[in-house]
Specification:
Layout: H1 7-13, E1 32-36, H2 47-55, E2 62-64, E3 75-78, H3 83-86, H4 90-94
Antiparallel strand pairs: 1-2, 1-3
């Protein structure tokens, strides 16, 4: 994915379902992801994202996908799975292959 996109935008452009109840405004936290790897290299959360992360008592490796614009390749795990995914059998979710993944 080209630089400059948020993680949420990249997910959607890649055809991956990703929750975002507030529409990417950084207020609801439903798009939150866990950073798998060196989260300390990422740009710091801005004031809006930090406030939302504090409100939900997020761990240091959790960020809002709608606000995070990585400056290098990262791997994330969405923390809330859209209903269409949770309706699948568990083994289907674990082995799901996404284009470009």
């Amino acid at each position: 994915m080209p630089r400059g996109f948020t993680v949420l935008e990249a997910s959607r452009l890649g055809g991956l379902p990703h929750y975002s109840v507030c529409g990417g405004k950084g207020q609801c936290s439903t798009c939150r992801v866990q950073i798998l790897g060196d989260y300390q290299r990422l740009p710091q959360p801005d004031q809006l994202e930090q406030k939302t992360l504090e409100r939900i008592n997020a761990a240091p490796d959790v960020r809002l996908a709608c606000q995070l614009r990585p400056d290098h390749d990262i791997t994330v795990a969405p923390l809330l799975i859209p209903a269409t995914e949770t309706a699948l059998p568990a083994n289907t979710q674990e082995n799901k292959s996404w284009p470009g993944a």
